[in-house]
Structure formats: structure tokens, C-alpha cells
Amino acid sequence: MDEKSISSCFVENPTNLTLKEATVEPNHGSTARFKNRLRRIQQYQKQKREKQKDKSQRRKHRVAARKHTGEEKQQPKTIESMRIIDETTVDLNDEEVKRDIEEDEMAEAMSG
């Protein structure tokens, strides 16, 4: 082993260097280990409920933290919310606009 891989196996401990335990967590995300169809469905539903609970708790914590800090809710960046409003409207009582309407060459062809 080279020195870089050896050092990555050790965890810094205040008293001394100890070898990191190589524990592998069981795969809770997979229901393929159940051969019984009903048991597999029940396990999937249980995992889905737990996932929804976790998501709900995270949302509640975010809202509570936002209230505590006084921060406002973030606005999603949609096309409409990012649009820069361009106010290039024409006032029909303007002299220049009235003249353009009177001198419009295509008005007769477009009107009827």
C-alpha cells in the first residue's frame, strides 16, 4: 500500500490513531431480499411512509428555522418570475401615435 491509502484508513483520534472500522450498513432501500410478494409490498410501503415522515420533519424544521431567524421563504426561479418587465406601452393620445395611425399605408388592406 502506498502512503496515501494507508493514511486514509486511519482516523484522527485525540489520544492516538486508530484503524477505522469497516462496518457496512445493511441496504434498507432494497426490498429485493424478500421473496414473499406480500412481505415485499409491506416493506416497501413501510419504507415509503418513513421517507414521507422524514421529508415532513425536514420541512417542519426548515419552516421553524426560517421563523426563528426571520428569513423569508425562497421564491422559486421560474421563467415568469425572472422576466424583466418592459413597459413599452403606447399612449393612444400621443401626437406621434395619432400621425402614425393616420399615415398607415396598410390600414385599408388590413381592415377589410
List keywords for this structure.
single chain, 112 residues
What is this structure's SSE topology?
Layout (H helix, E strand, L loop, with lengths): L2 H7 E2 L6 E2 L17 H33 L9 H4 L12 H8 L4 H5 L1
Antiparallel strand pairs: 1-2
Describe this structure in words.
The chain has helices at residues 3-9, 37-69, 79-82, 95-102, 107-111, and strands at residues 10-11, 18-19. A two-stranded antiparallel sheet has the order 1-2. It is built from five helices and two strands, in the order H-E-E-H-H-H-H. With 112 residues, it is mainly α.
Summarize the structure.
This protein has five helices and two strands; from the N terminus they run H-E-E-H-H-H-H. The chain is mainly alpha-helical and 112 residues long. It has a two-stranded antiparallel ribbon with strand order 1-2.
What composes the largest sheet? 2 strands, antiparallel
Radius of gyration over alpha carbons? 33 Å
The first-to-last residue Cα distance is: 88 Å
Low-confidence stretches: 1-26
Mean pLDDT: 78
Strand order of the largest sheet: 1-2
Oligomer: single chain
Order of helices and strands: HEEHHHH
Determine the strand fraction and express it as a percent band.
under 5%
Roughly how much helix do the residues carry, as a percent range? 40-55%
Helices, by number, come to 5
Tell me the structural class: mainly alpha
Number of strands: 2
The best one-word shape is: elongated
